[in-house]
Known about the structure:
By secondary structure, the chain is α+β, with helices and mostly antiparallel strands. The chain has helices at about 15-35, 40-55, 60-80, 85-95, 110-125, 140, 155-160, 190-195, 200-210, 240-250, and strands at about 1-5, 10, 130, 145-150, 170-175, 180-185, 215-220, 225-230, 235-240.
Amino acid sequence: MTLFRIFFIEFGLLDIFDVIIVAFIVYQFIILMRGTRAVTMLAGLGLILFLAFISTWLNMNSLRWLISRLGTVWVIAFLIVFQPELRNALTRLGNTPFFGKLVSAGGKKLINEVMKAVELLSETKVGALIAIKREVGLKGYEETGKKLNAEVTSDLLITIFTPRTPLHDGAVIIENDRIIAAGCELPLTTNPRYQRILGMRHRAGVGLSEETDALIVLVSEETGAISLAVRGHLRKNLTPDKLGRLLEVSLEGRGR
């Protein structure tokens, strides 16, 4: 059924729904990619798609031939160059309440043990990097370190991060109230905002938070400052109590 006509193009109810759905998908994708390096190239890709539509509509064969060749190269280049941003965007999309339900990774005991360890590490200015798994798996990162599968205790965490020990410089990964692995390597963030001001430990923490929904607790070995990285954002200069409240809210699934 035709609702209205623009020139020689007829629009029905199904066409309106079609346009709304596509517009919503494009809008959500732009929101996910906002603040990344991919935005500029995404605009260029949008221009190519617009020209492709115009060339087909007006039957401009030469322009359509050129766009068809250039468009393929542009899409492949986009996927290769901005693979980290695309992976991060898809991960964030999959972690939204619409697509998935957060699975709690721990309880009060876990939070208390982490708080006690972080408080002492902060007072003694011992660096630490603790990743607490939520829904997105961390198996690939676990395999870069030493498997422990031990109960989470403040004493064990403090021992792991003691300077000049083999596991001091890596990350601890916690899953289901257990320390799965220690001395793990994490991906460094490529966000220019953090590359200029953060050390490698904090860049690794932010990097993992960009690619997964894990909670990353950090202690600076220079200042003893406590930070929490979540979804690519870094909360700095936290007190142990403030850290505990943030962890409790996030692990209960209310901090999404």
